[in-house]
Amino acid sequence: MSIQNILDIAKSSLIAQRLALEVTSENVTNVNTPGYSRQTTTLTTSITTMESGFAMGTGVKVSDIQRAYDDFLQSQLSKENTNSGFGSAVLSSMEQVEQLFNDLTTDGLGQAMQDFFDAWQDLTANPQGQPERQAVLSMGQQLVDQFQRINSYLNDVKTQANKSLEGLTSDINDMSGQIASLNEQIQQIEIQGGNANELRDQRDLVVRELSAEVGITYIENGDGTLSVSLTLGQPLVIGNQSATLSLEQDVTNSGFYKIMATSPGGTTAVDISTIVGGPDNTQGEMGGTLQVRDTLVNGFLSDLDELAYTLANEVNSIHETSYGLDGVTGRDFFTVPSAMDGYSGLGGISLAVTTTSEVAAADSDPLVNGTGNNNSATAIADIYDTVLSTSGGNMTLEGFFNSLVGKVGVAVQDATRRADQSDGILQQLDNLRESNSGVSLDEELANLVKYQKAYEGAAKLINVGTEMMDTILGLIN
Amino acid sequence: MRVTQNTTANLVTNNLQTIRKRTEELQQQASTGYKVTMASDDPVTAQQILHMKSLMASGDQYARNISNGIAWLTMSEGAMSELGNVITRAKELTVAMSSETNNDSSRQAAVNEFEELKAQVITLGNTQLNGKYIFGGFKNDTPPFDSSGNFLGTDDAISVEVDHGSFVQMNYSGGELIRGTGGGTDIIATLDNIIAALNSNDTSGVEAELSNLDDALGQVLATRTDLGARLTHLNSANTMIDNMNLSLTKITSDKQDADMIQVISDLSKQQTAYEAAVAAAAKISQISLLDYLS
Fold this sequence. Notes:
Chain A is α+β, with helices and mostly antiparallel strands.
């Protein structure tokens, strides 16, 4: 055996321990880096050689630097991020909607409706009274205002959802681009051997972020690149190329955006509006936003329209056969709806009567048969208690409004439950990921001491080797 | 399970967040006094609360209608009672004038008084409430009786709703009450007949009208009885609304109001939990291997 071997073995140890220390320090410094997975150095013995009839080792080598990574957790996290993205997008819009229907603590549409019919009740007691007639007009206007206020806010929520598609698509483009460029770097590094641990961590993080915006599936290829596509098919990233999403106004959907995609490496954009949100728009922030814009709010709007439409038609049908104080009949109280769709909004419901004498409380000409006739006022006031046929079954106007409030409540409750649930699961998964991949400072400090001592030992070996060498060389003198 | 510093930190943050969230809910309940402030707190209860609120508001409206009705009927009652007095006086006078012993001057005095009584009947027929002639039917903004007692009003019923679908007529037709339209006794005509008979010194003619005066008195009394029944109806409807509103208020309160004792004690529990969590977090993160490495 030669002294040279001792020095060689010591050298291999110095290199290996130094590498391990580097990895440890990388871990320590990245303790709080989002998405970072702790790395471990795998040390193995070098090849053995036969020496003086014995099999002797030749030192230590670093066989691998591995990151603690759980593929299953990553896919779970992506999936749950998708749910959470959907939940929070729907929840924030639904909470805005709920404020509009909060008749429990403030006076809203329900109260306005009640006030309107109460004003008619008051008119039955004094059909000629100017103050009573004025109250009917004012309460009618207030009712119209409430309808239009809620309608315009609901449309605002839709517009806002539509507007947020701009940020969403540009985020998705950005992240797809990042994945594509990370794909390229990872491929280039790993072709030379070794693992591109940090880059993979970054890519995993971007994938998780992307999955919060849209529902995605991904698969890792043999060359280390990741192919990403929407759950319903459209590819987003292939190798080092990414898709580009863009927005176009859709004239068939009130000028709202439709979402176009140019496939990776492609040149023509296709309409992916129906698939980008996942099945029935249930995935990711994109799905949530589209569902708010195209389904949820429309449901409330159509109920509101129906309420306004039914109310106006019922009041008009009595009012137009009744007589104003001026003896004129055939007037409508509200503008006649041309269609139910959009009637609760601007250009829809409004007062058709303007002066107090046009308010019709009598079912016969008051100029001939007396102005004390209150029969029509009674009939109109009674509409509030009348069970009418509606899309939700037979109910009163008040019942219909209350069930609309209930619907909104259920939608918010549902969204809250969904968001809370996926937040809880995400926390669990994050904990698991942290437990698996997170850096423990105690652990790393212990490792630090371990590798430092080994490094000192190896240095001591070189010292000893040098002395032995000196001894031998001294013999020559 | 491997535990790192970040696991502990996350745990602490999440727990504190949970406690904070719960505390905020309780604080909202404590400050508003309601446990249901949003439809999403409990959609089913929220609908019920809204429905009960609307029932209470309707009740308030019916109470207003009832008080209008009571005002009309009380006014009518006063007028009818006075009308009874007038007829009774007319009867006394008629009895006195039925004897042959009266001379011209006493007859003339009687004629004057009958004229006076007729004018009084017309005035009573033109009784007003808030500028409305209550016996005029639908034509209630002009006097229903002219100076000679012709009825110019209508016989229409003016009704108010006192409960869901339940109406009470709050007026009486002056035509039916005083002119006997629809088969009753015509009080004005009876008085006119007496005056005519007195003027022509027709004692038997005067006497013949006595039965009509009796009928007239009966007519007024019958109407007053009917009025009393209507008033009872209105009062009982009013009591019912009061009772219903009382129980509705109670039910709504049960459904909507927060149990303050519960809320406050829960709040202090959360407070304790929060302090404990903070203290524990501070203790755990104090020590690390770093403290022992030189």
